C-alpha cells in the first residue's frame, strides 16, 4: 500500500525525482483506487491508505499490483495495459510488448528492481517486461515520455520501474507473508504467488515465488488461439536495514515452458531469465549537503530457445534457435539538498553481450548439426553514462527542474566472418559481414558514439488546487544488438496476395543513434470530490531507427523486400487525459483517454505500430468490506497504417476496427487479512484485436492475434 500524504517511506525507491518533482498528489486511477482512513493510525495527522494506482502528476502513474481489481495479468506487459497512456502488443498469451506514446522495445527503459535484463530472442518472444515478476511486485512506477535523465541510456518513450521493497514489519512482528491464487475460465489459467519475509534484529530475509499455467484461450468467435504457456520462478533477498542504511543481496529466476506463439513462425519450448543484484542505500545525517548515497549492481542472463517443430506439426526444414543475452551493470548516485535545492549526481554502466545461432536439418529433426544462420554474431554494446539532475525553486509557486546526461557507447561483434554451413541449393555460404555488405555496402566495424541529452522543466502552482508544467528535452537512443547485427538468412516466399517477399532479416552496423527533441506540457486540477490531469507532447525524431523493407532506397543496395534497418526522420505527438470524481459517499468514477499520432517524414506516410485513440471508464461502488464495479474500455478504428511491404515497411497487419468491452468485478474482505475478488472480462464475448498485436500466422481466418473472449475469474489473497 501507499501512504499519503507522506510518500517518502514507500516510494523513495532510489528515485529522487519522484519526491522532488511531484506537483501535487492526486489520489485516483481508472481501476481500483480505494481511499480509507487507516484504522491503526495513532498520530494526530490522519493517514490515508491508497490502493491501486496513484496519479501524482501528469505523465506519472504509481500502482500497487496486488491491490488492483480486474482480471489477473499474464505478465508485466499485460499488467501495464491498465495504466493510463500505456498499451501493449500481443503475439502470444505471454511476453506482451509494452508501448508508451507510440514507442516500444529499447525506446523504453524497463527497470526490474534496480536491474536491467535484455531479452535474448530477436523477435521479442522474451521481452524485458516478461521477466519482471508482477505477481509479487510491491509497486510499479510509469513515466510517460522522457521525464528524467537518471534511468539509463535511451528511454525516449518512457520508463517502467517494477520494484520489490525491503519488508516493513509492525512493532513486535518478525515474520509476515502473503499468498495469492487465481483461476480464469478462458484458457483454464491457474496461478499462484506468494512471499514470506522474516527478520532478526536488523537483518531480514524475503522469499517470493509464483507459478502460472495457461492453455489456449478462445476468442469471441470461439476459435482456439495458440497461446498456451507455463511460467514459474521466484526470488530470494537477504539484507540489513537500519534507520539510515539498507544493504541487500538477491537473486531472481524465471522459467518459461512450452510457450506457443500464433504471431510467429516458431514456438518457444524453453526460456529463462536470472538476475543477481546488490543494493546499497545510505542516508547521511551529518547536517551537510550530501543526503543519500545509492548503489545498484546487477548481472542478468536471458536464455531463449525457439523452434518450428517441437510444439507444432512439421515434416521437413527443421530449425532451432538458441540465444543468450548477458547484461551487466550498475548505478552509483548521490543526492544533495540545501536551501530547498535538490541535486542528484551519478554514473551508470550497462554492458550487453548477445550471441546465438539458428541450426537445422532439412529432413532429420534429431540431428540439428548445421548452422543455418549466425543470428547474432557475439555482439557487445557497452554504455557508460554520467548524469546530473536538480530542482531549483524560483519562487514560492515556481520551480525549475534541469538534467544533463552524457553516454559513451561502444559497439562491436566478434563472429561477423563466420559462415553458415546449411545452405539452399544454388546458394553459397554467407557470413553476417557478407550480408551487411550486400545490403549496405559495409562490413561490421567497432563503433563509438558520444551521446548527449538533457531536459528543462518548469513546474508552476497556479492555485492551491491547480498546477502545470512545461518542459523540453533531448534524448538519444543508440541502436541495439538486433538493429545493428541481426543476420537471418532466409529465402523468398509467396504471400496469399501473390506478392513475393524475401524473409531475410539483416541488421545495419552503421546506424546513427535516434535523437528525440520533445516538448511536453501538463496541467492538473483538484477540487473536493474530483480531479483531472491533462498532458500533451510533441516529439521530433532525427535518425529514427526504422525497420524497413529493402526497396532499393538511396541507402539500401538491394530491392528484394528483405527486412532491413535505416535512419529516417519521424514525428510523434499526442495527448492523455485522466481523472476521477466522487458521486456520493460510496460511488466513484475513474476515466482516461489517450491518443498518439506518428508520421514517417521521409516517405510522408503514417509511422507503423501506433495505437489508436483509446478510452477507459470505470465505476466503483465501495462499502466497508465489499465493493462492486464495472469497466468500459475500448479503442476507435485505426486507419493510419504502414501495411504495404512493397512501398513501406509492412509492419502493420492492416487497419483495425474499433471495439468496446465491458467488464464486471466485485471484492469482499474477510477478517481484515483475506480478500476475494471475482469478475467477468469481455462480458459480451466480443471478437477483437489490439491494433499492436502481431499478424496471425496460424489462422488464415484472422488478421491479427485476437484477444480473449469472455472469461470468468476468481482471485484470493490472504496476508499473515
From TrEMBL:
* Residue span, TonB-dependent receptor plug domain: 65-159
Extent of the signal sequence? 1-30
A single GO BP annotation from the record? siderophore transmembrane transport
| Membrane-crossing segments per the record | none
GO molecular function ontology, one term from the record: siderophore uptake transmembrane transporter activity
Q: Name one Pfam family in it.
A: TonB_dep_Rec_b-barrel
How does this protein lie in the membrane? Multi-pass membrane protein
Question: Where, per UniProt, does this protein localize?
Answer: Cell outer membrane
Q: Which InterPro entries match?
A: Beta-barrel_TonB, Beta-barrel_TonB_sf, Plug_dom, Plug_dom_sf, TonB-dep_rcpt-like
Q: Which GO terms describe its cellular component?
A: cell outer membrane
Q: Where does the record place the TonB-dependent receptor-like beta-barrel domain?
A: 235-683
Keyword terms, alphabetized: Cell outer membrane, Membrane, Signal, TonB box, Transmembrane, Transmembrane beta strand, Transport
**Family to which the UniProt record says this protein belongs:** Belongs to the TonB-dependent receptor family.
Question: What is the recorded name of this protein?
Answer: TonB-dependent receptor
What is the originating organism of this protein? Paremcibacter congregatus
Amino acid at each position: 500500500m501507499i501512504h499519503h500524504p507522506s510518500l517518502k517511506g514507500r516510494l523513495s525507491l532510489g528515485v529522487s525525482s519522484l519526491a522532488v518533482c511531484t506537483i501535487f498528489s492526486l489520489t485516483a486511477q481508472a481501476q481500483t483506487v480505494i481511499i480509507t482512513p487507516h484504522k491503526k493510525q495513532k498520530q494526530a495527522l490522519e493517514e490515508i491508505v491508497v490502493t491501486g494506482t496513484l496519479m501524482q502528476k501528469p505523465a506519472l502513474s504509481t500502482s500497487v499490483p496486488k491491490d488492483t481489481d480486474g482480471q489477473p495479468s499474464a505478465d508485466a506487459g499485460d499488467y501495464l495495459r491498465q495504466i493510463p497512456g500505456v498499451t501493449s502488443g500481443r503475439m502470444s498469451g505471454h511476453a506482451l510488448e509494452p508501448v508508451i506514446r507510440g514507442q516500444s522495445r529499447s525506446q523504453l527503459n524497463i527497470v526490474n528492481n534496480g536491474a536491467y535484463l535484455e531479452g535474448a530472442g530477436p523477435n521479442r518472444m522474451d521481452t524485458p517486461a516478461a521477466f519482471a515478476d508482477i505477481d509479487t511486485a510491491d509497486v510499479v512506477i510509469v513515466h510517460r515520455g522522457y521525464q528524467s535523465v537518471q534511468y539509463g541510456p535511451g528511454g525516449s518513450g518512457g520508463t517502467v520501474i517494477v520494484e520489490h521493497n525491503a519488508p516493513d514489519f509492525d512493532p513486535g512482528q518478525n515474520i509476515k507473508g502473503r499468498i495469492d491464487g487465481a483461476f480464469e475460465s478462458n484458457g483454464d489459467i491457474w496461478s499462484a504467488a506468494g512471499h514470506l519475509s522474516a527478520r532478526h534484529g536488523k537483518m531480514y530475509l524475503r522469499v517470493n515465488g509464483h507459478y502460472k499455467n495457461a492453455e489456449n484461450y478462445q476468442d469471441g468467435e470461439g476459435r482456439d488461439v495458440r497461446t498456451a504457456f507455463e511460467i514459474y520462478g521466484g526470488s530470494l533477498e537477504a539484507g540489513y536495514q537500519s534507520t539510515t542504511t539498507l544493504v541487500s543481496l538477491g537473486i531472481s529466476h524465471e522459467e518459461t515452458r512450452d510457450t506457443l506463439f500464433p504471431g510467429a513462425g516458431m514456438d518457444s519450448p524453453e526460456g529463462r531469465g536470472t538476475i543477481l543484484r546488490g543494493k546499497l542505500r545510505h542516508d547521511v545525517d551529518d547536517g551537510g549537503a550530501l543526503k543519500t548515497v545509492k548503489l545498484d549492481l546487477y548481472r542478468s542472463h536471458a536464455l531463449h530457445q525457439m523452434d518450428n517443430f517441437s510444439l507444432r506439426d512439421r515434416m521437413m526444414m527443421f530449425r532451432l534457435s538458441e540465444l543468450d543475452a548477458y547484461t551487466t551493470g550498475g548505478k552509483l548516485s548521490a543526492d544533495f539538498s540545501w536551501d530547498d535545492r535538490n541535486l542528484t549526481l551519478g554514473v551508470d554502466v550497462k554492458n550487453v553481450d548477445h550471441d546465438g545461432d539458428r541450426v537445422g536439418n532439412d529432413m532429420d529433426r534429431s540431428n540439428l548439426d548445421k548452422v543455418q544462420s549466425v543470428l547474432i554474431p557475439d555482439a557487445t554494446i557497452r554504455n557508460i553514462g554520467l548524469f546530473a539532475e536538480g530542482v531549483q525553486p524560483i519562487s514560492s509557486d515556481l520551480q525549475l527542474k534541469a538534467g544533463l546526461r552524457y553516454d559513451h557507447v561502444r559497439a562491436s561483434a566478434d563472429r561477423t566472418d563466420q559462415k553458415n554451413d546449411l545452405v539452399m541449393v544454388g546458394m553459397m555460404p554467407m557470413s553476417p559481414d557478407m550480408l551487411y555488405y550486400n545490403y549496405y555496402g559495409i562490413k561490421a566495424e567497432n563503433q563509438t558514439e558520444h551521446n548527449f541529452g538533457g531536459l528543462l522543466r518548469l513546474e508552476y502552482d497556479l492555485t492551491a488546487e491547480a498546477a502545470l508544467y512545461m518542459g523540453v528535452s533531448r534524448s538519444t537512443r543508440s541502436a541495439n544488438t538486433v538493429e545493428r547485427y541481426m543476420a537471418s538468412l532466409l529465402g523468398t516466399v509467396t504471400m496469399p496476395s501473390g506478392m513475393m517477399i524475401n524473409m531475410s532479416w539483416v541488421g545495419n552496423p552503421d546506424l546513427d543513434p535516434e535523437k528525440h527533441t520533445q516538448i511536453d506540457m501538463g496541467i492538473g486540477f483538484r477540487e473536493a470530490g474530483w480531479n483531472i490531469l491533462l498532458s500533451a507532447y510533441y516529439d521530433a525524431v532525427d535518425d529514427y531507427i526504422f525497420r524497413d523493407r529493402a526497396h532499393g532506397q538511396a541507402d539500401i543496395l538491394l530491392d528484394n523486400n528483405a527486412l532491413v534497418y535505416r535512419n529516417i526522420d519521424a514525428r510523434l505527438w499526442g495527448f492523455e487525459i485522466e481523472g476521477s470524481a466522487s458521486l456520493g459517499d460510496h460511488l466513484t468514477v475513474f476515466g482516461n483517454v489517450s491518443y498518439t499520432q506518428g508520421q514517417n517524414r521521409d516517405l510522408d506516410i503514417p509511422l507503423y505500430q501506433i495505437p489508436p485513440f483509446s478510452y477507459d471508464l470505470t465505476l466503483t461502488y465501495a462499502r466497508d468490506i465489499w465493493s462492486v464495479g464495472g469497466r468500459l474500455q475500448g479503442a476507435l478504428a485505426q486507419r493510419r497504417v504502414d501495411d504495404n511491404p512493397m512501398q513501406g515497411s509492412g509492419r502493420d497487419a492492416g487497419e483495425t476496427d474499433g471495439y468496446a468491452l465491458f467488464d464486471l468485478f466485485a471484492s469482499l474482505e474477510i477478517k481484515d487479512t483475506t480478500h476475494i475478488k471475482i469478475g467477468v472480462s469481455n462480458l459480451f464475448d466480443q471478437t477483437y484485436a489490439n491494433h499492436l498485436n502481431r499478424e496471425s500466422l496460424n489462422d488464415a481466418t484472422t488478421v491479427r492475434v485476437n484477444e480473449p473472449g469472455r472469461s470468468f475469474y476468481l482471485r484470493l489473497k490472504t496476508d499473515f
